[in-house]
Amino acid sequence: MSSSSRHKSAIRSTKTVFGSPQEGCISRKDLLTIKSLDVRDIELIIDTAAAFHEVAGRAVKKVPALRGKTIANLFIEPSTRTRTSFELAAKRLSADVVNLSGSSSSIMKGESLVDTGQALECMGVDLVVIRHPAAGAAHTLARTLKAGVVNAGDGAHEHPTQALLDLFTIIRVRGKNIAGLRVVMVGDITRSRVARSNIHLLIKLNASVCVVGPPTMIPPHIEKLGVSVSYDLESALKGADLVMILRVQHEREQRSLFPNIQEYARLYGVTRERLALAKPNVLVLHPGPMNRGIEISTEVADGLSSVILDQVANGIAVRMGVLYLLAATRGAKGVGGA
Amino acid sequence: MAQLYTSDILIQNGKVVRPGMSTTVANILIRSGTISGIRRGLKTSAQCEVIDAKGKLVCPGFIDLHTHLREPGFEYKETIQTGSAAAVAGGFTSICCMPNTNPVNDNKAVTEFILEKSRLAGLARVLPIGAITARLAGDELAVIGELASSGCVALSDDGHPVSGSLIMRRAMEYAKALGLTIVDHCEDRELSKHGVMHEGEVSTTLGLLGIPSAAEDVIVARDIALAEMTGCRLHLAHVSTSGAVRLVREAKARGVSITAEACPHHFILTDEAVGDFDTHAKVNPPLRAESDVQAIRAGLADGTIEVIATDHAPHASEEKEQEFDRAPFGISGLETALGLTLSLVEDGILDLESAIRALTSNPAKAFGLDGGDLREGGKADITIVDPNEEWEVDPSTFRSKGRNTPFAGRMLKGKVVTTIVGGKVVFSTNKDI
User: Residue A332 — pLDDT band, cuts 50, 70, 90?
Assistant: First the structure.
């Protein structure tokens, strides 16, 4: 079966798509954005992740699915959690993994991203997982490489595997029917790649999304993505099914976005009292790392509604699914199937 | 450099486009670098080169008020030689080059270097624009009098626009005495800080930091107030917002002495051209919203914006093949400007004579330059255009070192076939020059 003609590629036509799309195969060489995925791709990734999820519970947490494949984690922007999650996912699939960070790589010596990527490709790397502070960096790389590229977060643009693991987490608790769920997303929407990927994903699945934060953190024309906007957390929380809390960055550049962190917490911090306005079975998600007492109170973080630790655990299964779907069929036509 | 045509030239049977006059078929005779006659059926008994311009437009040589030639300092991007070659291929017989070189053109030595290099290139007339402030640093005036006397035709801190309102006031007062136009790239660099594209729906989707329209409007408003106060002649570079068009229209109605330019990319493309992080569409001011494009087209149509300039900003390919945030701003524009400008005629925005005026006599007036017209006794700077030739933009054929254009692959109608500077043919599609 081939519905690949409907798939719109996220990148322009210079790249090569390896292998013909077939059932159980993802019809693209890269995962760059949620925006470019269609619902069928999303379902395939979630189903594949579910199949891998039980591996984590085994005594021997390993399957031979990607034996002989090589995956490079190119983390130009520092990250502990996401890199570890990708590394464990690759290792549990029996792939060979190399880790390159911004501080140790030749990028520090002035090498361009494209040259770094080409060098990795020449060493036989099948997939490059990239985290980069510049929006679009994964596209820049994907345009020039035959190897597959997984975007592990590019600036404020997208973080597709985070949104997929959030969805996976929601589905495991609430089931597959996402349509009609009322989602509140609170925090710095302007500078959040997690927000953008989740907005695209939830809107594709017909959830209703309200973004909340001070106007300094809500980007212009965000409603064109299909969301509503509120500056008042309490009114937005009424009747919510899901609350997605974003990390507040309170480093230098953010200074003019709000007067101080206490005022942010007072206006936009999710507390137990505020959460009581949502539906009784509301789920609370946070991509981590959390600022307890600022965007989320400890009671909420550790409360019954919180699925924050499930998100971390599920991240590995979802990344196993993504890596498998992109790497398994590469270079071996006809090999595929979950 | 060999003189290719030392003899007289007779341009026969072309449609002669003269600013302010109706277009008629006539012959033009060039003698010793000047136009000696424009008449229907004009002949000469003397030995001369004949150019058959039947079906072609014979226009005054185009004048670009906004070119970056990159030399001295960035010869890997462009040189005065390659930039001049690109200019004449695009029909420009005069180009005004911005001072953001290294060293900056803020003194006589750099001005003279540019003039000497352009003389050696022997192609377009290169008219340097001097810096407003020393080193473009924005804190003290450059030696404006020295720049004027050594050949600078205007003043600008383009690329590093003057932030301080007081130093801008002083520059305008000072320039007024010397009769120099101040050219400003209007950008409030606090509002635009870290921005890499227009702030709007596309920047929101891509997660790129935006440059809001207000960053331009704020400085346009300031500059108009200062021009009104000082009486200095002000020229606004590359107007990109509907707000700026409105402010200029209103100021002109009050009689403020200002002129404004638009670049082809700003009246053709929107921020949608950035697509999936295409750095060829990264330019400053940025490609803006559809409503801005429409406002600029309306501004061109009603004469609020009277000049079309290229903001030719060549870069090396490896500089553009980077992360969007890191790639430099700019579009290589000299070789596509005519075709893009003529699309305004196709679209009914401008008539042919007004379109040519925006490339010739209007820029000449804005800077008080000689030229931009065709008249007996005037210098023979002439561009001959085939208005019907359709061609595809292929950056690999550019004379410019800068292949950075968002127009690659676009079909354009209207091509320069011959360019004459001072009576010498410096570009021709028919002859191997």
Answer: very low
CA nearest to A10 within chain B: B276
Q: Which helix (H) or strand (E) element contains residue B388?
A: strand B382-392
Question: Could you give the number of structural domains in chain A?
Answer: 2
Range B255-259 contact pairs with CB under 8 angstroms and sequence separation of 24 or more: B256/B224, B256/B227, B256/B228, B257/B227, B257/B231, B257/B232, B257/B233, B258/B224, B258/B227, B258/B233, B258/B234, B259/B181, B259/B233, B259/B234, B259/B235, B259/B306, B259/B307, B259/B362, B259/B365, B259/B366
CB contact under 8 A, A140 and B277: yes
CB atoms A224 and B322 under 8 Å = no
- Residue A331 pLDDT: 54
Domain assignment present for residue A335? The answer is no
> Of the candidates A10, A114, A193, which has its C-beta nearest B207's C-beta?
A193
- ipTM > 0.90 for the complex: no
Of B311, B373, B381, B386, which residue is the catalytic one?
B311
User: Are residues A130 and A23 part of one domain?
Assistant: yes
Instruction: Report how far residue A137's alpha carbon sits from residue B212's, in angstroms, rounded to the nearest whole number.
Output: 23
Residue B204 and residue A154: Cβ atoms within 8 Å?
no
> Which residues, 6+ apart, have CB-to-CB distance to B421 below 8 Å?
B61, B88, B93, B123, B124, B125, B381
Closest residue in A to B324 (Cα) is A136
Axis crossing angle, helix A160-174 with helix A308-327, rounded to the nearest 10: 120
> What are the tokens at B19?
């600013």
Residue A274 lies in a domain: yes
CA distance A273 to chain B (A): 32
Among A118, A157, A159, A192, the strongest candidate for a mutation testing the B interface, having the largest count of B CBs within 10 A, is A157
Q: What is the pLDDT of residues A130-141, one digit of tens each?
A: 999 999 999 999
Q: Name the residue type at position A3.
A: S
- Let me know whether A114 and A182 are in one domain: no
Report CB contact under 8 Å: A225, B199.
no
Q: Which of A12, A151, A221, A246 to mutate to test the interface with B (most CBs of B within 10 A)?
A: A221
Tokens of B130: 């001097």
pLDDT in tens, B278-296: 999 999 999 999 999 999 9
pLDDT band per the 50, 70, 90 thresholds, residue B430: confident
Q: Give the nearest partner residue to A135 out of B206, B275, B321, using CB atoms.
A: B206
- Give the distance from residue A271's alpha carbon to the nearest chain B alpha carbon, in angstroms: 29
The pTM (predicted TM-score) of the whole model is 0.92
Domain of A280, in residue numbers: 160-306
CATH class held by domain B64-367: alpha beta
For residue A158, list chain B residues with Cβ-Cβ distance below 8 A.
Answer: 207
Residues of B in contact with A225 (CB under 8 A): 204-205
Nearest to B323 among A10, A113, A196 (CB): A113
- What are B193's two structure tokens? 């800080």
Topology of the domain comprising B8-58+378-428: Urease, subunit C; domain 1 (2.30.40)
Mutate to test the interface with B, among A113, A139, A189, A200 (most CBs of B within 10 A): A139
Contact, A15 vs A29, CB < 8 A? yes
Q: Which residue does chain A place closest to B319, by CA atoms?
A: A112
**Phi, psi of B109, rounded to the nearest 5 degrees:** -60, -45
Helices (H), B317-396: 317-320, 337-346, 352-359, 361-367
Rounded CA gap, B364 and B384, in Å?
19
- Predicted confidence at residue A9, as pLDDT, reads 36
Q: What percent of chain B has pLDDT over 90?
A: 94
3-class SS at A127? Answer: strand
Q: Which whole number is the average pLDDT over A287-295? A: 94
DSSP label at residue A106: G
Contact indicator for A127, A20 with CB cutoff of 8 Å: no
- Partners of B209 on chain A (C-beta within 8 Å) are 156
